[in-house]
Amino acid sequence: MSMVTMGWFEAIMLASVRMVAFLVVAPPFSHGAIPLQVKGMLGLGLALAVSPLVANGHVPLETGAFIGTLIEQLVIGLALGFLVMLAFSAIQSAGSLVDLFGGFQLSQAFDPGMLVNGAQFTRLFQMAAIVLLFTTDGYQMVIAGISRSFTALPIGNSLDLAMTAKAATQAFGDLFLSAVQIAGPLLVVLFLADVGLGLLTRVSPALNAFSLGFPLKILITIVFASVVFIALPRVVAALVDQGLQMLTGVTG
């Protein structure tokens, strides 16, 4: 049994570096509750799973070339994970908009698990997206996307930086657009509530309507945010498809 050769061993090491770098950045595996040891073992296991793709015809490299290729695989994994992270940041941004317009922004805090600095709905939306990725098998599609990258972008091939920069720029634009689309109906309701309170104060200043503004906006936010929350499964499914399209566009 001579399958375990030096070329096979090097290819598995290089593939595991790309896998681990991707898992450290890309959701849902980037969550702080998943230890780095688990991410490393998962990356090595996935590298072994794609070994027929990465080790086929791989020639052992010299020390300098091997280190350079190792760094290159690290950069590729981080870049692909960053693109997927941008796609799913739309949900976090939508929660931030809800917190801002709903008056919850004053109670923001840093969540070391999700590495999110935000108030209640920011963390709630982000946590719900991570849970939905696991319960709807979206994480399997994310893993399938990085696995297919070894076919489209074999070890030894360089990442197209121009195409990656274009994809990242488009992802930033889609992030803000998706965030507004997710939280848009609730933001309109909150804006109309502010306008109504302003008109009421203008008509009858003695009522001091703005003293009721915070409780009223909090009630409206909680009631209408449930509608946005119900739509999150479809949103997560669409973002998974968007993330896979970006991976395919960069590596294809």
Overview of this protein structure:
The chain crosses the membrane at residues 6-29, 41-59, 65-88, 175-200, 212-232. InterPro entries: T3SS_IM_R. Keywords: Cell membrane, Cell projection, Cilium, Flagellum, Membrane, Transmembrane, Transmembrane helix. It is a multi-pass membrane protein. Belongs to the FliR/MopE/SpaR family. The chain has helices at 6-25, 36-49, 51-54, 63-102, 120-135, 138-152, 161-203, 213-230, 232-251, and strands spanning 109-111, 116-118. The protein has 9 helices and 2 strands. The chain is mainly α and 252 residues long. Helix content is 75%, strand content 2%. It has a two-stranded antiparallel sheet. Helix 4 (63-102) packs parallel to helix 7 (161-203). The mean pLDDT is 80. It has a domain at 79-251. The chain is elongated and about 85 Å long.
Write the layout of secondary structure elements.
Blueprint: H1 6-25, H2 36-49, H3 51-54, H4 63-102, E1 109-111, E2 116-118, H5 120-135, H6 138-152, H7 161-203, H8 213-230, H9 232-251
Antiparallel strand pairs: 1-2
Helix pairs in contact: 1-2, 1-4, 4-5, 4-7, 4-9, 5-9, 6-9, 7-8, 7-9
Q: The biggest beta sheet, please?
A: 2 strands, antiparallel
Pairing-aware structural class of the strands and helices? mainly alpha
Low-pLDDT segments: none
Q: What order do the helices and strands follow? A: HHHHEEHHHHH
Distance N terminus to C terminus?
35 Å
Q: What share of residues is helical?
A: over 70%
Broad shape: elongated
How are the strands of the biggest sheet laid out side by side?
A: 1-2
Tell how many strands the DSSP assignment holds: 2
Radius of gyration: 23 Å
What percentage of amino acids are in beta strands?
under 5%
Output the number of helix runs. Answer: 9
Return the average pLDDT rounded to an integer. 80
